[in-house]
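Re: weekly structure request thread

Next one in the queue (176 aa):
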Amino acid sequence: MAYTNAATEKHIVEVADLDAGHTVLVLGPGPGVGLRAAAERAAVAIGVDPSEDMLRLSEQRCADLVRSGSVRLQAGTAERTGLDDDSADVAVTVNNVQLWADRRAGFAEIARVLRPGGRLVLSVHEAHLSVTRHQLAAEAEAAGFVDVQSWTWDPPGMFAGRAVQLRGVNKKDGAS
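Done, posted below.
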């Protein structure tokens, strides 16, 4: 995963347009490539993953950032991150939305933990998605995201398949 997803992980961090004041939720950080990229741009990156193995790999890849406090890791799922309400400015996720037990609940949880006006940016291999990108966007909108955009992207690399990408803004408390 560190090799095949690296370009997409870094691309999504670019799309997320992070700055030094942001707290970023990295949902499903896997081996930590995107988590590290996010932490190098933001104040704090919080990696939430249900797999202890993936959390361990993320901790190894980001050991210096964990020690400095700019990376935090915790067990959780898309549907239950364990984060407080309004605790993140941006949420990013790469190649795991297809693994969520309940996408609608996952989108609702992300909306809950994002501050008003917070942004969601995700990417998933098109071949692994059981719905169209338009249906995925509709699910995000149903959870309270506005200005939702979805598109396809061809990551570089011989083994990288076309990806569906999506971004949206959390419309909470009148944010738009």
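The mean pLDDT is 92. The radius of gyration is 15 Å.
Next request, please.
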